[in-house]
């Protein structure tokens, strides 16, 4: 049992607090309370993950810092600050796996909404206007999924099942990937962008990927293509994206994440034709909280029994690299 587990929450505490408390000496902290409760804790469950509070509350003395941090999210960019990354005694785990299918379903829904112009149909309905119009088919269209981790693979499988042609973009090129078939690296990325009708971002936000969808990448995309981002807003140069959308070079975009969240009211993205804005909810489902806590409890039991943890993050790369042991 950890000497002390701090649970960082905002608004509502996680479910199954009774189970957590039976397995660990548990205290609960808001973001404001964290600086007072984190020093000396053995473990941290970050039920809130997109926050500067963890970085700001992290003890200056490494001996006072937690030895294990678990993120209730797949993305861990908020945790990749030097004091945590450079301390070899701190293990970081995430919630990879919980969001795979929900985000894949959301991406398919966004592609269908764009291709069938559901937003336009709903707008006509609000005005009681009867306007039949032709829509696009997605069968046979090409989707480039940028990010070949578990979420990207789930997206690829679902889009392929819907009849789309799918390829991937990642660190290493290959032609025999079980979900993507072809995976492009930087050497062939621009040629792949030129062929893709939809570019789907599913990569983690790391120092290497921040701003990766910049003006040259957008210019390399196929005229009339659409961009979908369900990863992190920091992957995209939003000013360059607005420019390409305004010029009509891209047909549209579906954006669930943004450089600044909530998206400022003055952002032109709110009103641009062909753009769908959603409030960072691609992975949120009615069963999300239960899945997140089940994974954390599994790891909490593993740690108490000295077993390998699931979803150990390579802190230098910013994502899970090695295969995980099965659930208990």
Automatic annotation (TrEMBL):
Organism whose genome encodes this protein: Streptomyces hawaiiensis
The protein's name: Hydroxyacid dehydrogenase
Listed InterPro entries: D-isomer_DH_CS (IPR029753), D-isomer_DH_NAD-bd (IPR006140), NAD(P)-bd_dom_sf (IPR036291)
GO molecular function, one term: NAD binding
Entry keyword set: NAD, Oxidoreductase
A Pfam family per the record: 2-Hacid_dh_C
Keyword match Ribonucleoprotein: no
Domain D-isomer specific 2-hydroxyacid dehydrogenase NAD-binding stretches: 108-282
